[in-house]
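Support request, priority: normal
Reporter: lab tech (M.K.)
Component: structure prediction queue

Hi team, I submitted a job for Adenylate cyclase from Galbibacter marinus yesterday, and the status page still shows it as pending. I've pasted the exact input below so you can check whether something in the sequence is tripping the parser. The sequence length should be 158 residues. Please let me know if I need to resubmit or if it's stuck on your end.
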Amino acid sequence: MQMIEIERKFLVISDAYKKEAITTTKIAQGYLSKHPERNVRIRIRGEKAYITVKGASNTTGTSRFEWEKEIDIEEGKSLLSLCERPIIDKYRYEIKSGNHLFEVDEFLDENQGLVIAEVELTHEDETFIKPDWLGEEVTGDTRYYNSQLTNVPFSKWV
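Reply from support: The job had stalled in the queue. We restarted it manually and it finished. Here are the results:
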């Protein structure tokens, strides 16, 4: 079944989101493939593992095909060991804002200092309440794609 993911991304300008978080989870993720038209990701999120296939973004960078399936945790760990390096490590905070759920990723290691918020929408022009800690929108800026952060980590940006 085809699923279109519609999301917008923002930089985060304060750590106030941490006080509003309803969950916090450690995530490790890597890429088996980072082709420009599609990527295949393995993610370990807490005690669960997932395989995800994402297609290329549309022209605005807001929508793209996404297919995800939960897999056995041991299979996930084995597949993660096959992924290209480096592996992305981060903490994910989930925050409710109105009718929406924001996912805030606080990156570790070579991407330390980068904090990005994402909100999934049902259509591209859907309105949502913007929390005070939300900064500049970076939707469509490929530098902020997790797959690209493995190529050029945040610590290497000039």
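The first strand starts at residue 4 and ends at 12. The chain has a mean pLDDT of 94. Let us know if anything else looks off. Ticket resolved.
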